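Fold it.
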Amino acid sequence: DQPFALGHPPEVQVVEWHIDEGESRLDAEHDGYDRLLPPVRVRRNVRYVRDTRGWTLTDELKGKGIHTAVWHWQSASEMAICASSAEVDKSAISLTTPTALIRVAIESTVLGWSHGIDKGIVAASYGVKRSADCLVLSVEFEGRCSLSLTVRPRS
């Protein structure tokens, strides 16, 4: 019995890597969920824009049938996350921390979604655990799901 053994190591492919004076962008995909029936392909795009100091992370999931995807975004232990608004009709939520504004938006038609802020634990250093807020987002989709997380500093 090997509880952490993978049937096959996931293959990662870098689709695009771009850096210039205005932005940096990485676009990659992996087949780590090919073991699901039916399989799901995951593509992630990470973008940093220098003049706004903003980050955007976009995940696109594709697979036949109905799937549920769950994301967990952990904050630093000293950083509380507060939901400032939830636009249920637009499948979006806005959050604030003492230093950042965060917006999570589902950019595709989904069957349903929910979100919450849970308490988690982070390891500040070896053997040191601290409580931290964790945004949990669950999305039920059929065929395709696209989700973006944008983070920018508070003015």
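The CA atoms of residues 24 and 48 lie 5 Å apart.
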